Amino acid sequence: MIKTLSLTASLLACFASVSVVNTPSTCSKIQVRREWRDLAIDQHTTRTATTRFEEFQATHIYLTERIHSVGQFLPWHRHLECGYHGPETFWDWTRDGNSNRPILGSPIFDPVTGFGGDGVPGTYTLPPDPDGLSSVPFPARWKGCVQDGPFNATVINLGPGRLLTKHCLVRDIVESWKFNMTSENVAKQMDASKPYEQFRVIIDNLVNGIHGSGHVLVGGEIQIHPLFYMHHSNLD
Ligand SMILES: *[C@@H]1O[C@H](CO)[C@@H](O)[C@H](O)[C@H]1NC(C)=O
Ligand SMILES: CC(=O)N[C@H]1CO[C@H](CO)[C@@H](O)[C@@H]1O
User: Fold this and answer.
1) Which of 55, 168, 200, 222 could pair with 218 in a Cys bridge, judged by C-beta atoms 3.0 to 4.6 Å apart?
2) In the record, which residues are listed under signal peptide (predicted)?
């Protein structure tokens, strides 16, 4: 209860800073959100710094059942980013969904200036999970370790799910899934969902929804990776 109250209090504090007030004021400095590939390269480096990163992963794992498929899904995920003071950036997946270029050719998955590429088949096996702690929705989509780019040698200590295992960053990027991420599909989901309740249910659908599909397109464990924050900024 205390945890819920303090989360609510900090959520309010977080939104208080962006709430609209009637007193006219001028902004001395306006920060513009930029799509990730429109940032200068040194800003990429800043955004992917890993200070206290595991605390963010752990918070998301610990609260998983309370922050997905519920009304606070979007505000909670925004709250997780609250406190980051740089210009917020995002992964506009419609730029990849609308493009004829294969998804792995996207600057997002570039091995040098991006987040690295696909998992290598046969390099990862899900650990035994007799107590059902990992709650992996698509076990077949844990193809293998990302073995290029800045996360090649990254050791992840948390996960899958609530298991604690040392492992690599796992992906299984599937080309056909990018067709969920077109502007057309985004517009369709916006049009179909008038009340907020309907909206969050539609976007959260794992197969067609723009939130669920972002996860499934990348496969493996996007939620313990910086790309997760780019994905959620875009939903915002
Ligand atoms: C990935 O890391 C391994 C182990 O450190 C190394 O042998 C390999 O050269 C790296 N691959 C790339 C593409 O950087
Ligand atoms: C709306 C849409 O295009 N949905 C597709 C999302 O991707 C899966 C896997 O390719 C398809 O089965 C869906 O039809």
Assistant:
1) 222
2) 1-20
